[in-house]
Write a structure and sequence with these properties.
Elements (H helix, E strand, L loop, with lengths): L9 H13 L14 E8 L6 H20 L7 E8 L4 H13 L6 E3 L3 H13 L4 E3 L12 E3 L8 H10 L4 E7 L2 H16 L3 E8 L7 H8 L5 E5 L4 H11 L9 E3 L4 H7 L1 H4 L3 E4 L8 H14 L7 H20 L4 H7 L4 E4 L2 E6 L4 E3 L3 E5 L5 E6 L43
Parallel strand pairs: 1-2, 1-3, 3-4, 4-5, 6-7, 6-8, 8-9, 9-10
Antiparallel strand pairs: 10-14, 11-12, 12-13, 14-15
Length: about 425
């Protein structure tokens, strides 16, 4: 099928093939664009362990849909939102995505959070030739003709984080992460970078999702000789880790932690006293100084509460709906193949800065920011890239990463379904 040339493991190709066979009798689109409205789908965890994070993404998607409807909709049609709860379970995400596509007949779906949820949905969207807009930064090594990845590729988050640590003179890294897809794959990138850039990984530890006992891991960290920590923990584990880190006497000014999954919301949950001065790597912060962001923050707080912070995942989700709108209007059609063909070069002046769709791999050009957590519970930029970075999900442009994409089919990734599209216009 068309997606198999986009960089996929054997297991993922087999899963896609199985789903294609299962969906053969329902592969025709049932999207109805004849009336005054057009349906779109949101699939987020509104219950379960991920609900605390994904509910805010759902909120920002609703805000974007209401804003678009307030100015006339898309191609003159108001957006009708159909919502499903992924319940923090990958299999449920796949089930709900199929329902949105085949029963609710939505023109596009927005959502997902964990890489496990995305990988569960991927073959469903390819089998039905439907569109998913996925908002989270992720580990890379993937591209699909039916997914638009509006969060960071690894060269837009992980690599800039490591470049910053290297510039600051850090050479000995300790890696700590939750035991699932993103941390494990991200840390393979970290280890390859370290080997190619004169750095050393002096420790690597994983813990089950939700783990709260970090006594042993922090003790290993303290005596490892590390001068920086790369953190890919998720959820409540961060609370326990940083409390143990602080109790051990480790400090941000001597052994800083740079985190890939701590945004403004998580700072409050962890407690600012436990993470003050620590570093984060993202593509958006609430504190970014631009007219677009000031309006976004103001509108979100007016709608959902003055105490509600904005964060990278929710901003990326908000942006994804506007990018889909731009693609549809460029294509002058809701047809999936026409939308994909029109995607390349579509831009949006987002709260994070100007973003541009790369039609070759369905990721977007994004500016990278390294931030430091302040007393105000917000994250303040200490470094930013020189403009938006071209997405490179397979890290093909980095010599030190040559072995990482082996077996993924990366050499042919991004070649299907893009014939006739314009050259990328990202900065």
């Amino acid at each position: 099928m068309s997606g198999c040339g986009w960089g996929r493991t054997v297991a993922e190709k087999n899963a896609a093939s199985a789903n294609a066979t299962a969906a053969a009798s329902t592969s025709g689109s049932c999207v109805d664009a004849s009336g005054d409205t057009i349906k779109i789908g949101f699939v987020n965890s509104l219950s379960g362990t991920m609900a605390i994070s994904e509910t805010t993404v759902n909120h920002s998607l609703h805000m974007a849909a209401d804003e678009i409807n307030a100015v006339g909709g898309v191609l003159g049609k108001k957006l009708e939102v159909v919502e499903q709860d992924g319940k923090s379970e990958p299999a449920v995400f796949a089930e709900k995505a199929r329902s949105l596509i085949e029963k609710d007949c939505v023109a596009a779906v927005f959502g997902g959070w964990t890489s496990s949820s995305r990988k569960a949905m991927l073959p469903v969207f390819e089998a039905d030739n439907a569109l998913l807009f996925y908002p989270l930064q992720y580990e890379g090594m993937e591209a699909s003709p039916n997914i638009f990845y509006t969060g960071a590729a690894p060269n837009q988050q992980i690599v800039p984080a490591l470049d910053y640590l290297k510039e600051q003179g850090h050479k000995k890294l300790f890696l700590v992460g939750s035991d699932y897809v993103f941390p494990q794959t991200a840390n393979r990138v970290v280890k390859a970078y370290a080997e190619g850039n004169g750095m050393e990984v002096v420790g690597e530890e994983y813990t089950p999702m939700g783990s709260t006992d970090f006594t042993t891991i922090v003790n290993k960290l303290k005596f490892s000789g590390a001068d920086a920590v790369v953190n890919t923990l998720n959820g409540d584990s961060n609370v326990a880790f940083f409390k143990e880190y602080k109790a051990s006497g480790l400090k941000a000014d001597s052994v800083p932690v740079i985190s890939m999954s701590i945004a403004e919301e998580e700072v409050s949950a962890i407690g600012v006293d436990n993470v003050r001065g620590q570093l984060t790597a993202w593509n958006y912060y609430q504190t970014l100084d631009s007219a677009e962001n000031q309006k976004f923050v103001k509108d979100f707080k007016q709608r959902y509460g003055q105490d509600k912070p904005t964060s990278d995942p929710m901003e990326s989700a908000y942006t994804s709906l506007y990018l889909w709108k731009g693609m549809v209007e460029k294509a002058q059609s809701f047809d999936v193949d026409k939308v994909k063909a029109a995607a390349d070069g579509v831009t949006f002046d987002a709260p994070e800065g100007k973003v541009t769709v790369d039609g070759e791999n369905h990721h977007i050009y994004k500016t990278s920011y390294i931030g430091r957590i302040g007393d105000d519970k917000l994250i303040h930029t200490v470094w930013q890239s020189d403009g938006p970075i071209k997405p490179d999900p397979y890290l093909k442009t980095y010599d030190w990463a040559a072995a990482l994409s082996a077996g993924t089919g990366a050499d042919s990734a991004g070649t299907a379904d893009t014939a006739g599209t314009a050259d990328s216009t990202g900065e």
